[in-house]
Amino acid sequence: MRLLFWAGFWAFLIDQISKYVMLHVLNLGSVRAIDVAPPLLNLRYGENRGINFGLFGDAPDAMRWVLIGFAFLVIAAVCWWVRRHDDNRLMMLSAGFLVGGALGNVVDRLVYGFVVDFLNISCCGIDNPFVFNIADIFIFAGAIGLILFEGRGARKNPS
To answer: Where are the domains of the chain?
Structure first.
């Protein structure tokens, strides 16, 4: 479980530092857009009050608390699930990434009332209107890792 903690810690820290840099160093909230390597990588300011792709973004403020509660339920469920796999380093690393990313987005909802998004990737003539953040990358990588690496180690007795 130590690996889960440290992976989560670093994922959370990297996410929060990236958001601090975007908001307070690059002032992306005011500038709104910075082209880094167009069209592949652009920085676009986004306030996500909902879930993926802005779903439920126009919901009342109470939805923020529902999403925070849901994130904590997911974190608890992941930690409970992977405790049986503490010999599987890839599972622990993946769980840590997911937990750290989820906590990064929870902190955004608590501090700002929304999740700060800033990455926009477009390619091959397709103009992607969506933005995401580093926490989303960690959450996605963690979820994929949990699926791919489950069962790769000796499983402990669930009791």
So the answer is: 2-29+61-124+132-149
